[in-house]
Each structure stands twice: as structure tokens, then as C-alpha cells.
Amino acid sequence: MNQTHGALPFPVTAGGAVAIDPSPATPSWPGLAIAAGRLGIALDDEALARFARYREVLLERNAQFNLTAIRDREGIECKLFLNALAIVPALDAVKSLHAHHRTRLVDVGAGAGFPGLPLQIARPDLDLTLVDATAKKTVFLNEVIADLGLDHARAIHGRAEDLGQDRGYRERFDVAAARAVASLPVLLEYVVPFLRVGGTALLPKGLQIDEELRHGRRAAKILGAEIVSADRLPIDGTRLVIATKAEPTPADYPRRIGLPSRSPLGKGP
Ligand code: SAH
């Protein structure tokens, strides 16, 4: 995938962000459908109803627990829903490679469900596993999954370092995604072990990632993967790092809990 942001078939603002129409005359809900449309993604009524419900549950539960720092309707739509939806075109490209089965996606460090749940809502033919180290978050996620009637999704409480060594999860997924969890070398050690050979990691990142990318390329190689692109997404200064797995990950990885973040792979001169 070498799509540049200039080639995408929808308008972007000067800052590169897709804007939700803030006019009070426009109810915010059609705003999500329109903004998603600008990203080239059509959301049907069922998807819109699920996003509406997810937003309400997030607002409700965020008042009780600290699930995400983003607490207002517009922030949820722009920063959480649309940012996740911006990955859908890349996901569709990967999905088309194995149309014969439900694409299995793992979201590592999903938190309150990002980017995994919006991806599942927009593409209900996925099979989604959300992983998070905090039980309160996976309990919340399983409640949302039941509430939205998402039959092919589940949340698992655990750490990437453990589940990546568990036969039930290791090398079982076609796609891995993770957002706002760790720097690229750490993130790659978390996600690549979950991928089957031929699988793809979709990792949204900020714009200033040159150094992370340099270390990330070395880390990817150690893990049996390769970073194939890091193009800008048409939303809020994000780049999408895409890595593919060419070989099985050596059995040593992921290392034991805490080591990936304390001593990231690929560091050094
Ligand atoms: N991806 C979400 C949440 C980001 S916060 C979003 O974009 O909003 C980071 C989350 O990663 C936290 O919920 C934390 O519990 C989880 N996390 C951090 N390290 C982890 C690990 N090693 N294994 C599993 N989850 C982890």
C-alpha cells in the first residue's frame, strides 16, 4: 500500500484533518456519516445506530470510571471514532486478500475499544479480539460488545507478553492493530507474535516518528516482520505504519512482562 494522502478521493482541510461540520443546525450524528463518507467509508443505519449507542455508553461509563480522557460527544466522534475509521481503507485492502474466511483481527491494548470496536462496527464481517491488561476495561468492553449485539467480537484480559506466548493466541490472527500503547519497537514486540505468517499490523502513529521508525525497522526484522509503509492518513496528523510478517517470530519473543518496554528491541546506534 503506497497510497499518498494527496491521492485520496475526498477533501481534507489545510491541516490534513477531515472536519466534522460543527454547525449547530447540523445534528452531530449525520456529521459522523458525512465525515466517514469523506474517508470513503459508507456507514449503514445499523452501523450508525451502534456508533450512537457506543458513544452514549462511553459517556455514561466514563463518568464512573476513567476509561478514556476524551469525554465529550464531538471528541468521541472525531478523536476516537473517525481516527479509527481512517484505518478502514487499509484494512479493506488486507481483507480482500483472504475473502474466503472471516478476517481475524486483534487489537492489543484496546483500552475503551480503539481502534478495534469502530472497525468491527464498520466491518461486521471481521472477527475481533480485544486485548487489554486492565480488567476493568475488558469487563467494560464485553458489556459494550453484548449491548451492541456484536456476535463476532470478544475482549480478553491479559498482557501482550503472556498472550503472545499462548498457543491459543500466538500466530492466530490475520491483522493486528494497536493505538496509543507504546513506541513502535515495543508495539511491534507486542503485536507481531499474534500474527500468522503473511499477516499485517496496522499501527496508527503521530507524524514525528522518524527515530521510532528507524528502531522499528530493526525490531520488525528481529520479529520476522517488515515495515512496508508509513503513509499519512487524511486525519489529524496521523501516519499509519503497516508491517507484514514474512516468517514465524522466534520463540524468545515476546519477552517476559515488562522487558519489551524496559529494553525495546532495535535500539542502539
Ligand atoms: N488503544 C486505546 C487505549 C490506549 S491506552 C486508545 O487508543 O484509546 C493503552 C492501553 O494499553 C491501556 O488500556 C493499557 O491497559 C493497555 N496496555 C498497555 N500495555 C499493555 C500490554 N503489555 N498488554 C496488554 N495491554 C496493555
Strand content: 15-25%
Distinct small molecules bound, one entry per kind: S-adenosyl-L-homocysteine
Number of strands: 7
- Spatial strand arrangement across the major sheet: 3-2-1-4-5-7-6
Globular, elongated, flat, extended or rod-shaped: what is the shape? globular
CATH superfamily of the domain at 83-262: Vaccinia Virus protein VP39
**Structural class by SSE content:** alpha/beta
H-E order: HHHHEHEHEHEHEHEEH
User: What is the CATH architecture term of the domain at 83-262?
Assistant: 3-Layer(aba) Sandwich
Examine the coordinates and then state which fold CATH places here, giving the name of the CATH topology of the domain at 83-262.
Rossmann fold
Radius of gyration based on Cα positions: 18 Å
As a percent range, the share of helical residues equals 25-40%
The residue ranges in which pLDDT falls below 50 over 5 or more consecutive positions are 1-28
Distance between the termini: 29 Å
> What's the number of helices?
10
Main β-sheet description? 7 strands, mixed
Topology:
Layout: H1 28-38, H2 45-62, H3 73-85, H4 88-95, E1 104-108, H5 116-122, E2 127-132, H6 135-148, E3 153-157, H7 160-163, E4 173-177, H8 184-191, E5 195-205, H9 210-223, E6 225-233, E7 238-245, H10 259-262
Helix pairs in contact: 1-3, 2-6, 3-5, 8-9
The structure holds S-adenosyl-L-homocysteine (SAH).
